[in-house]
Specification:
Alpha-Beta Plaits; 18 helices; 3 domains
């Protein structure tokens, strides 16, 4: 341990700790902009500068280690003046459009301006001018609002290991951009939105679908239906200062009905349906010698990644559509026919924790007879804005239940939103399919949690099924290398692009605390644990759907409506 003084307070810190970490350990807050926990500090923004006795200049606390006897001032007049000057210079080179900005009241630059009392413009000069990148159906990039903190670059390069954006040029001409400034749609970007979650301003944001959805809700000819992903119910309450990990399912249903949706369904229904088809596909591949290992296909960011980076392995990807696409397809076929509605009049909206779901909904492969399975995708953040515009006090809403029959689900479906959840749900059903028995131990702890690559071996009917869960696209490299080399031991692999899974998707409430992800996961596992039915094959509505429409798993009709194909995607 090292003893030092911070603001006249005696502090004991572990050797190797930075001044920033030592200060936070005793409740002293130091502002940061470029800093990201668990990554090697860059010290680029200098907003965390502090004064250390004996040193001539201010030093970045995020990058400087503590030492014995060090005396630190984090709030001296000199430090405050320096920080205020940094913020002032950033503000002068920033668009002055806070009132119409999507990050108004949720912007770190705005917060720092308030903290350091900016009340006038003291610096005047040339401002950067850049066009907004609107090339992607999922995300928008506005370089004029970029403060060059580099957090998005580091997440994309060091955590996700995609490298779709980076710094270019020097000095005043510096910019964070895609290769040759061609736009996100022409880069390696998988549209996961992790860069949005770390961006302190609105330089990166989702491509909003609020106007399209609002128009559909006002239409007299459209039959508007909405579905909610499992991860949304575990996070939306954060935007209303509810305790972290509050399950707001019932309030969500009520709020969506008040917005004017004619039916409110649960994407968990389709998660169970996905398991019926995906587990069946896995069993067939194991029995009949199909391409193994089989990859899950629920994450469209992962699908876009393999289409671009390793198209030679596409045969290993399950042909199943993702749950919300399956639900949309069922709504526009089985359900529309059941209600006697023209499928073209059915307008399906998905509330998703994800930005790349917007891209997925626009794929030509996911359209039935020129109609998209899903017409629009709203992120969790967009839904909050929708409620605010409609004057809905979310906290005061009563709880309501999903509509039937596409609202029934099991506990297995709820855990889809957490890394390892799809795998766990699929194994519960595959075990039953191969043995005719129930899997007794439903909590497969080996594939839960925040590990980068989690693996397990499940004995099923004389076969030791080797499975892996890839938590975050940045961890997929070694797995793909093994498959290409023919040395992979796995039969089944789940891949989620976002660390933590959909619970930490790019469309979720913006935060900088990694512990939030684990608490969000716990909500979904608690829903599963409290469910009366915890295996997808126990869903009675799914049984009825097969009896009345699909006949059996993997049938011709099921393949036509619930399955799709993927192709090489060139940049």
């Amino acid at each position: 341990m090292v003893e030092l003084t911070i603001n006249n307070l005696q502090v004991k810190a572990e050797e190797g700790m930075t001044i920033l970490e030592a200060a936070k350990s005793v409740g002293i807050s130091v502002p940061t902009l470029c800093h990201l926990k668990d990554l090697v500090p860059s010290g680029a923004c200098r907003i965390c500068s502090v004064e250390v006795e004996g040193m001539r200049g201010l030093i970045p606390s995020c990058a400087y280690p503590v030492s014995e006897g060090m005396q630190v001032e984090t709030n001296s007049p000199r430090v405050r003046r320096a920080r205020k000057t940094i913020v002032e210079l950033l503000v002068e080179d920033h668009p002055q459009d806070c009132l119409i900005c999507v990050r108004n009241k949720n912007c770190e630059l705005q917060d720092l301006s308030a903290v350091y009392g900016l009340r006038e413009h003291r610096y005047h000069g040339e401002s950067k001018e850049h066009s907004v990148d609107l090339s992607s159906p999922s995300m928008e990039r506005d370089p004029a609002k970029c403060i060059l903190c580099g957090r998005c670059v580091r997440v994309c390069n060091e955590i996700q290991k995609i490298g779709a954006i980076d710094f270019a040029n020097r000095g005043f001409q510096s910019i964070v951009t895609t290769p040759y400034n061609k736009g996100l749609s022409q880069s390696d970007c998988i549209l996961c939105g992790q860069c949005i979650l770390v961006c302190p301003t609105a330089a990166l944001r989702e491509n909003s679908s609020m106007k399209a959805v609002s128009t559909a809700l006002q239409s007299k000819t459209k039959y508007t239906i909405v579905q909610i992903a499992p991860a949304v119910r575990a996070t939306l309450g954060e935007e209303y200062q509810m305790p972290l990990g509050t399950d707001v399912t019932g309030k969500l249903v009520t709020g969506l009905r008040r917005l004017g949706f004619k039916k409110v369904f649960d994407t968990n229904f389709a998660a169970d349906l996905t398991i019926w088809e995906e587990a069946n596909e896995l069993v067939n591949r194991v029995k009949e010698g199909g391409s193994l290992p089989m990859f899950t296909s629920c994450c469209p960011g992962w699908v876009k990644y393999i289409e671009t980076k390793a198209p030679e392995l596409l045969a290993h990807v399950s042909s199943c559509k993702s749950p919300h696409e399956m639900e949309g397809a069922v709504l526009k076929t089985y359900y529309a026919k059941k209600l006697g509605i023209n499928p073209k009049d059915v307008y399906v909206v998905s509330i998703m924790p994800c930005t790349v779901k917007k891209f997925e909904a626009s794929r030509a492969e996911l359209s039935e007879h020129t109609m998209p399975d899903v017409d629009a995708v709203l992120t969790t953040r967009e839904l909050v804005r929708f409620f605010e515009v409609a004057g809905i006090d979310f906290e005061d809403l009563n709880d309501d239940k999903f509509d039937d029959p596409l609202g029934e689900s099991t506990g297995a479906a709820a855990i889809f939103g957490a890394s390892g959840g799809v795998m766990e749900a699929a194994l519960r059903m595959a075990y039953h399919t191969l043995t005719g028995e129930h899997l007794d131990n439903l909590e497969l702890n080996a594939i839960r949690g925040a590990g980068g690559i989690k693996e397990a071996t499940i004995p099923i009917g004389g076969l030791n099924l080797n499975v892996a869960v890839v938590n975050g696209i940045g961890n997929i490299g070694p797995i793909l290398d093994e498959i290409k080399a023919g040395t992979s031991k796995y039969h089944f692999i789940e891949v989620m692009s976002c660390p933590g899974g959909c619970i930490n998707g790019g469309g979720q409430p913006i935060h900088q605390k990694t512990d939030k992800v684990l608490q969000r996961m716990k909500v979904l596992y608690d829903i599963d644990k409290k469910s009366v039915k915890r295996r997808s094959y126990e869903n009675e509505s799914i049984k009825t759907l097969y009896k009345e429409f699909f006949i059996e798993q993997g049938s011709h009709r099921a393949h036509e409506i619930l399955h799709t194909s993927y192709h090489e995607r060139k940049i």
